[in-house]
Amino acid sequence: MPEFDELFRALDTDRANVVWKWKLLEELKQAGLRADDPRVERALAVDVGTPFEAGQPEWLDREQFAGVMQEPVVGRALQGQLAMPADEFSAFTSGVARIYDELQDERSGAVAQYIPTLRNADPERFGIAVCTGDGQVFQVGDAEAGFSVQSTSKPFSYAMALEQFGAGEVHRWVGQEQSGGTFNDPRLSLDAAGRPQNPMINAGAIATLALVEPDQDVSERFAKVEQTWTRMMGAAPGFDHRTFLAERDTGHGNRGLANLMAAQEMLNVDPKDRDAPQKAAEFYFAVCSLEVDAKRLAAAGATLANGGASPYTGEQVFSPQTTARALAVMGHSGMYNDSGQFAAQVGLPAKSGVSGNVLMVVPDRRLAVVTFSPRLDAAGNSVRGVEVCKRLSAEFNLHPYAELGPARHAFAGVTRAGAGSPGHHNVAAPATSSVTRAGGLQL
Fold first, then answer.
1. Any bridge partners for residue 371, and if so which?
2. How many CB atoms lie within 10 A of CB 62?
3. Cα–Cα distance between 408 and 174 in angstroms, integer?
4. Residue 307 backbone dihedrals phi, psi, to 5 degrees
5. Are the beta carbons of 261 and 196 closer than 8 angstroms?
6. 57 close to 22: Cβ distance less than 8 angstroms
7. What is the reported pLDDT for 404?
8. Cα–Cα distance between 424 and 270 in angstroms, integer?
């Protein structure tokens, strides 16, 4: 096992024929894997032999290190084979941290007003989380502050419907085009046949959720949604009961849309149940009231960036075809009535929610970025969240149509010398550790 021997020697800096646990954890941290990552915890849960005195560091001998290496993500991290090599991940997350600091004084916009739980949100909250398809994680600020997911649930609800029924059947009930109006516009949400224009507006989300386990009772259907979110995030979502009750009591417009769809037989509900449209709307309110945080939502986004595979387990939650469709509709309709402008400026699939969250997916880097900041602009998007996306896209050349041709360069965490494009700034890559180069151990 020459690779194993070389990795062991590279980490055995004291030449004592052991690897210190702290040294291994430091290398994994630089690669973006946290010590509380369940895969890392599982890998290091090996018998370390003779008990150590309190306060003494622990080490791994060759046999124990071989046991640790049975966890594939550890070996790939040490060899720079994760979604982002350590130097790129460090440069990118340093840029995220700097942008977070630069936006501390940005206080334009206002919190959503239509229900008390959103109206009473702390407007100063601000957090950013990054997660790659391999579970590399970075977070800053209020990245573990809970919030109701709101409309950012929509691409995932759409994906669940696609997985169950396929695109042909799903798009018999919901379209794929921009509505040309706001997410809840009763005039523009439905086409002439009563079909919602796309899955990212309220009517479309009600329609797609009506296709999730439609033959089960509502408790089983909601359990299916919760289980899917848990599979993506590696942790269960919470539930914001107050938000659900407030949305149920004030969601007359959404109930109206459900009734309009049902009246034209464009809602997959029991036509003999006169309360079915209201139940469909309430199921939508419940899904919007799932409670997550930026860190967990970033893992859900990384599932889409990873072709439908969960970043922590590798489980195929959605097919690559399903994720492609979800990302495509996010790309043209995910940012409310500013979706076109966002697509022009950022160029990446994204979805926002009125609780102040924004999820942006970078498919070609297999990563997702989530921001949480409750102050919204006129379209209902987080002011800080949109600005984070714009700056990251510009500074790291993430826009898929930027600098096409010979001028376009691969992501390296540092903009090309002399690029001179507006909004581009040089981002120096932090120094790597003494034993790493290009994201992996020197072998």
1. 128, 358
2. 14
3. 37
4. 70, 25
5. yes
6. yes
7. 80
8. 54
Alpha helices in 53-199 (DSSP H): 62-68, 72-78, 86-102, 116-119, 154-173
Cα(419)–Cα(402) distance, rounded to whole angstroms? 11
Amino acid 421: pLDDT: 36
Concatenating the DSSP letter of every residue in 342-406 gives HHHHT-S-EEEETTTEEEEEEGGGTEEEEEE---B-TTS-BHHHHHHHHHHHHHTT--TTTT-GG
Question: Residue type for 48, please?
Answer: V
The 3-state DSSP class for residue 90 equals helix
* Residue from 125, 118, 122, 129 nearest 104 by CA: 125
pTM over 0.85: yes
**pLDDT at res. 51:** 46
- Nearest CA-CA partner of 74 in 19, 124, 115: 19
Alpha-carbon distances of 158 from 192, 270, 390, rounded to whole Å: 22, 20, 26
**CA 230 to the chain's CA centroid:** 13
- Closest by Cα among 181, 182, 203 to 251: 203
The rounded distance, in Å, linking the Cα atoms of 24 and 37 is 14
- Backbone dihedral region for residue 157 (phi beyond 0: left; psi -120 to 50: alpha; all else: beta): alpha
Amino acid letter, residue 19: V
Query: What pLDDT sits at residue 101?
Result: 98
Asked if 435 contacts 12 with a C-beta cutoff of 8 angstroms, the reply is no
Listed as ranges, residues in the chain with pLDDT below 50 are 48-56, 412, 414-439, 441-443
Cα(380)–Cα(391) distance, integer angstroms: 19
pLDDT at 181: 57
- Strand intervals (E) in 227-306: 238-239, 290-292
> Residue 182, CB half-sphere, CA atoms under 13 Å: how many?
10
Q: How far apart are CA 179 and CA 175, in angstroms?
A: 9
For residue 333, give the nearest of 176, 172, 192 by alpha carbon.
176
Residues 374/171, Cβ–Cβ less than 8 Å? no
Helices (H), 174-240: 202-209, 218-233
- Quick one: pLDDT at residue 243? 97
Tell me if residue 195 falls in helix, strand or coil: coil
Helix axes 218-233, 154-173, angle to 10 degrees: 130
pLDDT per residue as tens digits for the range 394-412: 999 999 998 787 766 555 4
Residue 54 identity: A
The first and second tokens of residue 2, run together, are 């020459």
